[in-house]
Amino acid sequence: MTIGLPGVIVSAEQACDASGYKNAALLDTLAVAYAEEGRFRAAVRTATKALELAEPKQKSLVEAIGRHLEHFKSGRPWRQRP
User: Fold this and answer.
1) What angle separates helix 24-36 from helix 40-53, to the nearest 10 degrees?
2) Which residue, 7, 24, 28, 53, shows the most beta carbons closer than 10 Å to its own?
3) Would you give per-residue pLDDT tens digits along the chain (82 residues)?
4) If you classify domain 4-73 with CATH, what class do you get?
5) Any residues with CB less than 8 A from the CB of 15 and at least 6 apart, and which?
6) For the whole model, what pTM was predicted?
7) DSSP per position, 1-20
């Protein structure tokens, strides 16, 4: 059973809410979902918050959020290549 993009967004928003919007990885997931739906302003805002919260020692997460943010700023969703 798939929940579809709206369900993914609701689930990601609930997870972020449960974490007090303090978990960078969850915020990044929400930003990716927003961008996939075409909500690029929300994606940029959310990814920027994720980047602010990410610990410098989480280098791979910081780099990933940065890549995602660049896509969102140019109006493109993030799609991982197979």
Assistant:
1) 170
2) 28
3) 566 778 889 999 999 999 999 999 999 999 999 999 999 999 999 999 999 999 989 999 999 999 999 999 999 998 876 6
4) mainly alpha
5) 23, 26, 29, 30
6) 0.90
7) ---HHHHHHHHHHHHHHHTT
